[in-house]
Amino acid sequence: MQFYRFKRKRNEGENLILPNDRQENCSNSIKQGKQEPRQNSIIGHFEVHPRNKYNFAAAVLRRPMFIGDFCLDEKRKFCQDKRNLHFISVNWKESKKVEYDLNVGLDKVTRKIFEETQHEKLDRLLEWILHNSFKFHTKESTGKSLKCLSTDFICFRGLMTELLCTPYEREGWIVCATKFCNTIYLCAYDTPEKHTRRENETDVQKQMSSWGYKFEQYMTDGSNLSGGVNENEEYCCVVRSRLDNHSLVYGAEVDGADPSQYKTPHADLRAFIELKTSKEIIADKDYRNLYRYKFMKWWSQSSLVGIPRVVCGFRDAKGTVHTLETYNVEDMPFRGQDYWKPNIMLNFLKKFLDFVKYSVHEDNPKAVYKFERESNGGNITCTYLGFDPEWTFLPAWFYEKVFRDDQKVKTVTGSEHN
């Protein structure tokens, strides 16, 4: 069965760049232009359904390896430190009864400004790469000027989570791709429908969103519970992984670590815990919704970064958490087996990345390809947008600096991973 169709054909005499050729060829990516489709032309389609065509032995997701971290401060400015790394202060290993009023300090909350955050794109992750480009050296490039990142895809975990869940969800999405020095950067954009929902959020919806941040404050140390949460602050980890033949680097905001397990330097995120809230389980349908929707999302998020456990606070309709439950991520597929299958999700993601890698032909930091999934469970269309400033997301301050010949070359050591 054909998974996808292409309208673009390889130009006569065009050479494919193999992984071992990256360091030699990528420095010419901006200078060398190749014939491309016309701007705003559709160049390919990818069929999502029937999803059972992905029901075979799962593509292997290599254990994610921690390669660095950074923080966003109260004004969402990039900080190359651990100031917002939090530690879990509550005994999470057993189910327990609690009384966490998530409305405390709600009138003092500092929320993210939607109009500002939507313009961030990949900027904070790109800042980290600029500060840590030495970590992308290979054995062959050590001691030389860095010419490429030797990585197939760079993005944020949220985008990867959305892709993993696509076979089981009906919502549309937009992912834009730009290829620069043989690395494809993926950036999520709001669909018009999602943009409208964000702009028209009710006060109740904003309140419920803030409950999740307040729950994290209850669960971590050093917090003034009577004070409001600044929702701009983040602690983000950067991990390296591989899905079958695709090498991946992505950033992910993480909630907190178990202080009894956290050690530095560390190679993975096994000491970390994902913190979630969900409405209380009252009827059987609540269990079905938990296993079908929540567990699928939580498994995807946690597996992508190698976090082994999720602690959920079950709240009532007024925003008070009464029960804490801990779930092992590796057990979630069993509980959700009637609704979703990890192998289908991983195989879909692998095939979609195949499609992206083949479709994104032009190696130029200003050229953009748009992958758009139709709403209501539709298929995916790839459109070549060309040099459209409305969609270009790689900033000049990144691509003009990251591979400068005069950049100081460093050698990675164990301490430099932290």
Strand content: 15-25%
* Order of neighbouring strands in the sheet with most strands: 1-2-16-15-7-8-6-10-9-3-4
The first-to-last residue Cα distance is 46 Å
What is the 3D form?
A: globular
How would you describe the overall organization of this protein?
This protein is an alpha+beta fold. It contains ten helices and 16 strands. The protein has helices spanning 22-25, 114-117, 123-131, 157-165, 192-199, 203-219, 284-305, 332-335, 342-359, 396-399; strands at 4-6, 41-46, 65-72, 78-79, 96-101, 153-156, 173-180, 183-189, 234-243, 246-253, 256-257, 272-279, 309-315, 320-328, 368-373, 380-386. Strands 1-2-16-15-7-8-6-10-9-3-4 form an eleven-stranded mixed beta sheet. A five-stranded mixed beta sheet has the order 5-14-13-12-11. Helix 4 (157-165) crosses helix 7 (284-305) and helix 4 (157-165) crosses helix 9. The relative contact order is 0.23. The model is unreliable at 1-25, 27-34 and 406-418 (pLDDT under 50).
